[in-house]
Design brief:
Blueprint: H1 2-28, H2 32-60, H3 78-107, H4 112-137, H5 142-163
C-alpha cells in the first residue's frame, strides 16, 4: 500500500512543480488568467498531496516518501507551452488513472482524491486542446489570446472568491 500511495504522491509532486513553473511562465508573458489558473491548480494539488500523506499515516501507519522533482518546466512561447502542456497532462492523467485501478484492485473502492484530481486534470486537458486549436486557427492573434485570458482570469477569480482565497 505504501508504494501505491508514494507513487501518487510523486505524481502530485511532479504536477505541483510543473504547474508552479507554468504559472511563472504565464506571468512573465502577461497572461494573468492562465497564471491564476495554474496557481489555483497548484493549491489544490498541494492539498491533495498532503491529504495522501496524512491518509497513509492515519490508515496504514506508514510514513510517506516525498521525492523532490529536480527537473524544471520551460517553454519558449505560449504556443509551445500549450503543445507541451497537452502531452504533460496526458502522461499524468494516465499515471493517476493507473493508480486508481490499483486502488480498486487492492481495496475494492475508488480513491475519491485521485478521482477528483483526474477530473480536474481532464478539464485542463480539454481546455488546453481547445485553446491550442482556437489560437492556431487564428494565427496566434495576441488580441484573441488576451481576450480569452482576461475571461479566464475573471472565471478563476470568481472560483477563488467562492473558496475564500482570492487575492
Amino acid at each position: 500500500m505504501q508504494d501505491l500511495y508514494n507513487s501518487v504522491i510523486k505524481v502530485f509532486s511532479h504536477l505541483i512543480k510543473y504547474y508552479n513553473d507554468a504559472m511563472i511562465l504565464c506571468h512573465s508573458w502577461g497572461l494573468n488568467g492562465h497564471k491564476r489558473k495554474y496557481r489555483w491548480m497548484t493549491r489544490h494539488l498541494t492539498n491533495w498531496k498532503l491529504w495522501f500523506q496524512c491518509e497513509l499515516m492515519d490508515k496504514y501507519r506508514m510514513p510517506a516518501s516525498d521525492a523532490v522533482e529536480t527537473m524544471r518546466y520551460s517553454a519558449g512561447s505560449f504556443a509551445e507551452h500549450l503543445s507541451q502542456w497537452d502531452n504533460f497532462l496526458k502522461e499524468n492523467i494516465n499515471a493517476l488513472a493507473e493508480a486508481e485501478k490499483q486502488f480498486i484492485n487492492m481495496t475494492g473502492f475508488e480513491n475519491c482524491i485521485v478521482k477528483e484530481a483526474v477530473c480536474c486534470l481532464l478539464k485542463d486537458y480539454e481546455k488546453t486542446g481547445r485553446y491550442f486549436r482556437r489560437f492556431e486557427e487564428n494565427g496566434w492573434n495576441l488580441v484573441d489570446i488576451h481576450m480569452v485570458d482576461d475571461l479566464l482570469h475573471e472565471k478563476i477569480k470568481a472560483k477563488e472568491e467562492s473558496e475564500g482565497v482570492a487575492r
